[in-house]
Amino acid sequence: MKKLLAACAVVLASASAPASAVTIIYTVSGVFSGTLNGTSFSDTGFTFTGIGNTDDAQTPISSVTTVALSSLKAVSNGITYSLASGYSFFVSRMANTGTVGFSNGTSDVIDATTAAGASYFGTTSLASTASTLANSTSFSTSHAAVSLADASSLSFSALIGVVPEPETWMLMIAGFGMIGFAARRRMSATVATRA
């Protein structure tokens, strides 16, 4: 038992660093129309979801904030379309208006005009709406080539949550191990007394 307590003390000492990685889940949804592999579509529940990290938020110039995304997916009519890596979420703040969307640096997946999000710098919540796309866009996904011609009733959100650091996972695993060890020890002691 003393060895177990000593091992736990070592784990606790090494896990004293605070968690700092913060995941951001960006969602853009609305009524989209365009083409999927050349076939026209109109979808009232079309949704884009991008996952980023506050550590990757950059404001290279005062009016634009970008956050690199680890993944970007689109869901239309229950089908998930994965986009290639290299996309970022961006907010461009111009006077009382600006644009919000996803881009890979050369072309935009979504580029929508919005009057909100002016204070967004990649680490605070975003809740805004836009009426239409600023530009029509075309991009490739895992299942289809997509061209978006129009969009309306768009809504944007950035949900922020803390992701456990490796040290936190170590603590959790060590805790479960201690509980299992104590339960097993108690069970074997009970069996030994009954025999």
Could you describe the 3D structure shown?
The two termini are 23 Å apart. The protein has helices at residues 2-14, 166-194, and strands at 22-36, 39-61, 64-76, 79-82, 88-94, 97-103, 108-114, 126-130, 137-140, 145-162. The protein is 22% helix and 53% strand. By secondary structure, the protein is α+β, with helices and mostly antiparallel strands. It is elongated, with a radius of gyration of 24 Å. The chain has 2 domains: 2-17 and 165-194; 22-162. Helix 1 (2-14) packs antiparallel against helix 2 (166-194). The model has no long low-confidence stretch (mean pLDDT 74). Strands 1, 2, 3, 4, 5, 6, 7, 8, 9 and 10 form a 10-stranded antiparallel sheet that branches.
Distance, first to last CA: 23 Å
The low-confidence parts are none
Specify the helix fraction band: 10-25%
Order of helices and strands: HEEEEEEEEEEH
Shape: elongated
Structural class: alpha+beta
Q: What is the strand content?
A: over 45%
**Radius of gyration in whole Å, from Cα?**
24 Å
The description of the largest β-sheet is:
10 strands, antiparallel
What is the strand tally? 10
Mean of residue pLDDT values: 74
- Domain tally: 2
- Note the total helix count: 2
